[in-house]
Q: What sequence folds into this?
């Protein structure tokens, strides 16, 4: 691991790992947002250049970190950690240079 990444990991103030969204969290977030969009919620992005499929729009919103969603992670000690999705997307971009599982 490069020195830049290890320095960045030391600065992260998360108690739980992984420092990214799991595929299950991504699926749950995209499904919930796609349902909202299909029921008439206003998209958070400009949909003029995106296919008008609710799932595609939800994935694009997640990629851009625009969703006001918080992930709840439980620590084995019983504590609960609330992590904004935008923070996890930012960590994932800095560590991996992309958001895994949401590439085109």
A:
């Amino acid at each position: 691991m490069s020195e830049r990444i290890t320095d960045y990991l030391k600065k992260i103030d998360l108690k739980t790992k992984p420092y990214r969204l799991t595929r299950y969290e991504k699926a749950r977030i995209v499904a919930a947002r796609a349902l909202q969009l299909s029921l008439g919620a206003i998209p958070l992005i400009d949909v003029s250049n995106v296919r008008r499929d609710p799932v595609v729009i939800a994935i694009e919103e997640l990629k851009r970190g625009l969703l006001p969603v918080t992930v709840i992670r439980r620590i084995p000690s019983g504590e609960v950690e609330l992590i904004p999705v935008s923070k996890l997307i930012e960590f994932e971009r800095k560590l991996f240079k992309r958001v895994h599982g949401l590439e085109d």
User: Anything to note?
Assistant: The domain at 3-96 is CATH 3.90.940.10 (Eukaryotic RPB6 RNA polymerase subunit). The chain has a mean pLDDT of 83. The chain has one domain: 3-96.
